[in-house]
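Dock pyridoxal-5'-phosphate; give full complex structure.
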Amino acid sequence: ESLNRAWNFGAGPAAIPVSVLREAQASMLDYAGSGMSVMELSHRSKEYETIHNAAIEDLRRLLDVPEEYAVLFVQGGGSTMFASVVYNLLGSGDKVVDYFVTGAWSEKAAQEAKLLGAQVNTVINTKSGKFRSITSKSEWTLSAPEKTAYAYYCMNETVHGVEWFETPEVDPSVPLVCDASSTILSRPIPIRRHALIYAGAQKNIGPSGVTVVIVRKDLLGARPFLHPVPLMLNFKTYADANSLYNTPPTWGIYVSGLVFKWLLGLGGLEGMEAINTRKASKLYAALDAYPKLFQAPVAGPVRSRMNVVWRVLGEDGQPSDELEKEFLKGAEARRMVQLKGHRSAGGIRASIYNAVPEEGVDALVAWVEEFAKKSRA
Ligand code: PLP
């Protein structure tokens, strides 16, 4: 049976495993004999409650989330979290917040903190080097721990393709906040090193509209902000109501839950990490084999396993829009889609999240090689 499915290298919304889509499809009209689709069920119904709690439990199992952390489903996407982090963790305002700026997303988060009146200390900012590396600890300017409300980093910069494989070392008394939107579930995460981890679902989890928050329970409601915080931006509201304070994105949580079961069925995140490492290594190796034609600019140790970015170079050694267009066109013709780099960065970006099978990466590698041979080697 031909499914007419493309190899989807989109950064988000992104690929979802075919088996998950099939399962969702099978229950589209009648979920578990209810005579309704999941998206038609009341969020207060028994059926939905079961879906909701199983999704939370399965996510806890996958990430090995300790008891002292709450797992929440909130709304607003990653961009809303930029503000929610400040509202929930800054406190009454006499403290500094430390931001590691390693790409477009942590830069935006730091800007939002400033907008809300936080005193932002930039621990590192790699913008002048075009966000291609992460500086070593000796170059960081961390604030004094007793003055720091929290430290913040983005584990994987989706636009620039830069990933932290080691958790940044900050004083254990300083709550560490992590935007894991584009790398969550691609490998195990040391939860206890963090105070708060969040992720928009539309990359490595499921449909857009769901945002996962993992937060240490003792921080909930513990730091009243400068002025009252809207209830829907206060994580305590969600924790107190098991993420059912208002109507959650029920369909998105259902499909996310199917993805969690898919991952558990595959044996969890260690196995996933091995596959993801292999997929990324193959692609980087193929690009590196033609240094006059392809340039994957991110420094080796922080090259993202999820978002592989590169430029196609002309004879003059400069990025060539024309050759990039040709590369993308040939990719489309081979059913490989959504490979265009982010509009702010240009070039090519292959997002190879969990749901992109190794076979899809092999197809891309074959096209990289074919393109190199027919251009110039
Ligand atoms: N953080 C990261 C790492 C992202 O990649 C994105 C979006 O691509 C965001 C935050 C913003 O997410 P959203 O579009 O859900 O607001």
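Observed: The chain is about 35% helix and 15% strand.
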